[in-house]
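Quick look at the format.
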Amino acid sequence: MAGSGASRPADRAVVVGIDGSRHCVDAAVWAAREADRRGLRLRLIEVVEWQDGVAGHPEAVRAAAQVRSELRSTARCDVDRAAAQVFGRLAAAAVSAEVCDGVPVEVLGDMSDAAELLVIGRPVGGWAGTLLGVALAGRAACPLVFVNQVPDTGPDDPVVVGVDGSPDSDAALEIALREAHARDVYLRVLHAWSDVPLDTEHGTTVEFGRFAAGVRESLHDRVAQHTRRHPDVEVRYGTTRDHPERALRELSAEAQLVVIGARGRSGGLELGQVGRLLVTTARCPVMVVGPGMRARSSEWAPSDVRVAD
């Protein structure tokens, strides 16, 4: 099934942030498949971070102009190389390779306002490499997708969503149902309920059997608020006493896509701890739904879920 069944503005596109890394090329290839499946344009964007108005000696001005020219030349090579990798996957007219000046999070964030998806490669370079992703998770007005590698998944592999009861998680669940419907696959809903330790060195302090039953019942009740609007999607539930990142990473090995909320229950940074870990370890693309996406989640008229345990 192509598309989600809801109408979209004609200028909607899948936007890919390019930085010259191998991961961004994988992101471009995955994004090309998505753009083709959704009938959308593909925009490959590299942002050259530059501030105008260099003051000082004329030689400094000339040197700055040369550096800027070289940076733009390198960026042009990067986006053209990414475009070459997607050649043949989309009509040439549906792909644009662009170099922009500005601050990456601001430029890409602004583009997300009219985008269907914003796609970037796996963060590299430790904490510093995750800063763009963290900032975009809070700014993006569309789902933000991190691509570690182009997944080798089958057409029947599911969409997986992590649910924890937070507002971002509820928005992620709505988007995940839409993604499962568009792919004509089932949705695996996972709640990993032991992301905080409930044991002590003196022994177990909680009756876990009774606790787990309550968790499963609460999960079904919460998800039912969304699934009744999506009867065409089969939903399979899972709960586990495990850390969310580890549980979702294991499921990602046989999934087309993992969908999570940006911040979860803990609040704090725009991309929470689970998200920061998962975007570097998942075996399939990870779609992050942040606060900027909540308002837009109501734009799509959801299809309505047969339920299976």
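Next, a different chain entirely:
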Amino acid sequence: MTAEDHRGNADPGDDAGAEGTVLQTLARGLSVLEAVAERNGSATPKSLARQLGLKQATCYHLLRTLRAEGYVIRLPGGQFDVGPRGLALGKNLSARTAPSPDIAAILARLHNKTGETAYVCGWFHGTILHQQVISGQQSLIVKNLDVGYVGNMHARASCQAILAYLPTSRVTTMFEGTPLTKLTDNTIGTFDDLLEELGTIRRREYALDIEAFAIDVCCVAAPFFDPSGAPAGSFTVSVPVSRFARARGSLVKEVREAGAMATHLLRTGRLSPPGVTPPSEAAAE
């Protein structure tokens, strides 16, 4: 048996020698599928090849394969969009990672009260996952921050609000000695600076992102906790810099209210706005 044969039969769950088992064709096909999904029916082989740095012939071949398997479809004008199997894959993943209906209701309340883009994050397989977003009444597009995003936790208020309440040993394991990418001039770039910021968040009980993840975008985030007191997730509101200064106080109030509601929900199993007694409790009294 050759070394190549051995790699081909390796256990998918075995991390040993993982670099040798990466299939470039599969990786490129998944990149094409992701790019098609991002373009909402406007993807062409030429635009995908340019975006992904692929030869156009390679892109055609990958699209034909994805189309044959039902992951993409070809539209009448020659563009490509996500196909039925791709949609089914996304639906299954969303069902596994989406917040509970009650947490989603709190997110809707936060959005309705602020009128701004609001989202919720939570734990998924050891990382902080962007679970759901409700777009604001005024357009605000943050590139790459889609549902399912798990990157750049050091730069996002939504993640910092959770990290601040983890044991320092766990934060150290996650970040010490790892590169902290500078996305903007305001992004935290060192582990010591991250620890200092997390301490500030614990003292004021909410996190701020002032153009740290994306230029012209500011965020306010507050955590919520499970019955044991461990951080379970966070609520965040994003606004342009132009609206942040005058809205900061009210945004802080609303995200902290959302966090308090979710914490109460997880600890009692009851969902109700602050100061409102659920009918079942009122009847018991």
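The longest strand covers residues 231-240.

See the schema section for token definitions.
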